[in-house]
Amino acid sequence: MWLPTLILNLLLLVSLFHGARGEQTSYRPQNCTLECIRRGDPRCEYCRISADDVQMPTSIPFSSPFGSCVPWPCHSFLGQETPEVCQHYVQAPHNIQIEFEATEEPTYDAVTVSWSPSQYGIAFLRGFQVTLQALGGSQVLCQLFLLGTNLSLTPAHAQMVYHSDPFTHLSLDSVYVVTIMALPVPERWDKFYKRKQFFTRTCPEKNGLEECKKDWYPTYVEVHQENQDVLVTFNLAPENFKIRQYFSSCFRGGLRNYTSIKPNFSMNKTHHTYRLQNLQAGTNYTCEIAADVVDAVRKTFTVGVKHKHISEEPRTSSLMVFLSVGILLAATTVLTVIVVYTKRIKKKTVQTKMRPEIIEQYYDKKLDEGQCVLLDRTTRPPGLLICYSSNDGPAHVRVVLQLAAFLQKHMATQVHLDLWEALSIMEEGSMGWHCRRLNECDFVLVICSQGLLQNQNHQSEDEEPLENTASAIVSMIGEELCRAKALGRDLSKYMVATFEYSQESDIPAALGLASRYTLIKDLPLLFSHLHGVALQKPGVYLQVENISESGYCKLPAGAALQLAVQEATAQFSEEPTEEEHVGIPIIS
Predict the structure, then answer these.
(1) Is residue 349 in some structural domain?
(2) pLDDT of residue 552
(3) Beta bridge partners of 27
(4) Are residues 136 and 246 both part of a single domain?
(5) Who has the most CB within 10 Å: 24, 28, 445, 476?
(6) In Å, how far from its chain's centre is CA 129?
(7) Does a cis peptide bond (omega within 30 degrees of 0) precede residue 42?
(8) Same domain, 374 and 249
(9) Cβ(279)–Cβ(230) under 8 Å?
């Protein structure tokens, strides 16, 4: 009786042992050529393929946003020898893992991607393509790996783990998206790739706090003179850096003024103000400020100490003194009343310019005084499709790209932009992708510009496909707005926006019923529109951190958006207008 039981236990142990070995099987890419793979050489089992090994098909333009990273058709590798393989599909890989690699560059990160193949169609699996793209960026990194033709994989091989080569030079504390495709890519199949989003490590995570302390320096420094002293305000280091002391040095003519700074963190944890004393009037100083750690990076700024003008007051009797004081007090009172009244008038004017029809549209009567709007990770962010015209050049496209990144990261919005979904566009076509997103998204934002208006007014069959798509999308939105208006439906889904280098006259007539915004100053209004919250009510004013007209640029994404707008404004201001192109007619 015990013999069958013993044999059964032995068989279970053997199967578990082999299963454990299968799970631990890991493949790293080899150096081999495409010809070696086609011959079925046993030494070419899992190989990396460079761009020189593969000839670019003529149907794929080199100007593609993917560059050489395209879903390669089956016949590019094996169609000549075994065309029947191209008739089968291979499902997407799974169990994608991100492994961080050690690098000598302190300002960059490196990762290796690993995954397991799917058991569905694994007998026809011939390789993988791995692409990596920064969220909000246009650069795409690509790696291609092929399996030997003599390999015969079975569903049991789905436990194997394949690795990519390291992706290096990745920015710290940034969002990246990795896409892994199973090869060969079929003609009609939508499950051959898998995506995963991840964050690269922060500077403290990669290098340790001690290394990051010396690389940090104050980025905000404000100087204000008070009598003969100078008050300097600067931003403090993050709390996790545990920097408790700073120092400042000012230089003039070989002399040095050293100040030790110990902020009171119980009063303010983000900024601190200290006083520079014993400075000579009428002199310019070059000053430095830094954290009090070894080899810290220093922030340089200049201080100009002005003379204090003292006028000699004539000696008068006590009656004249009292009279002068009374007149001064009366003048001060009158001036204060005028200033307060002027500020109230200006405040009312500003409130009137804040688009009252939009505020009234999104006025929430149930928002009680003192109630706040809380957006957390459990709340589903609204989906927003951004449509634009690339006819205005790369500067305008860069502005749209930075705006999408800012909305995605800091305004709790799921943004859909064609620059980020080039793979889906290649599968569905530009028009098909836009139509699907128009139906799926909660809101649609059309960035209006001179190029969009010209393209809408002068449509031609010779235009680029993307421009034809932009014109068709504008026409579709215009028809939907007219239909919704006629049926009495809500029009809030569609919005139009212009930047400061464009004008409201650039908005096509077909979009006249859509809500209008001028960016960047209308960011709070756009937030109110997207999330359906009231900007203000009597006694309550909604303030969302870092999206005001003056506060958005304090964020890295906001600073990038501000720079892109400035560059586009400078470019469009330098371009000659249509009147400048018109010559003066000669009368004969």
Answers:
(1) no
(2) 83
(3) 162
(4) no
(5) 445
(6) 25
(7) no
(8) no
(9) yes
Q: Average pLDDT across each block of 10 residues of the chain; the chain has 588 residues. List them in order.
A: 53 44 68 78 81 52 47 59 65 91 86 92 85 79 83 83 92 88 71 85 78 80 86 88 88 81 89 87 87 84 75 51 79 84 65 44 40 52 90 90 91 89 84 89 92 71 57 87 84 90 87 88 87 68 72 85 90 62 36
Q: Among residues 207, 238, 270, which one ends one of the domains?
A: 207
For strand 175-183 and strand 127-134, is the pairing parallel, antiparallel, or unpaired?
antiparallel
pLDDT for 352 equals 41
Residues 6+ apart with CB under 8 A from 553: 559, 561, 562
Q: Are residues 196 and 55 in the same domain?
A: yes
Residue-by-residue DSSP string for 408-419: HHHS--EEE-GG
Beta bridge partners of 113: 98
Neighbours of 543 (CB within 10 A): 11
Same domain, 276 and 178: no
Q: What is the pTM of this model?
A: 0.42
Gap between the Cα atoms of 391 and 397, Å rounded: 9
DSSP annotation string for 107-168: TEEEEEEEEE--STTGGG--EEEEEEEETT---EEEEEEEE-TT----GGGGG-EEEPPPEE
Q: Do the Cβ atoms of 293 and 246 come closer than 8 Å?
A: no
What span, in angstroms and rounded, lies between the C-alpha atoms of 332 and 344?
A: 18
Question: Are 110 and 128 contained in the same domain?
Answer: yes
Q: Terminal CA-to-CA distance of the chain, rounded, Å? A: 122
Close Cβ partners of 247 (under 8 Å, ≥ 6 residues apart):
258, 259, 260, 261, 289, 290, 292
| 287 within some domain | yes
* 318 contacts: CB under 8 Å, gap ≥ 6: none
In the chain, how many domains are there?
A: 3
**Which class for 80: exposed (0-12), middle (13-18), buried (19 or more C-beta within 10 A)?**
exposed
Q: Which residue has the tokens 């690993």?
A: 114
A 10 A CB-CB count for 368 gives: 9
In whole angstroms, what is the distance from residue 50 CA to residue 143 CA? 8
Alpha helices in 363-420 (DSSP H): 394-410
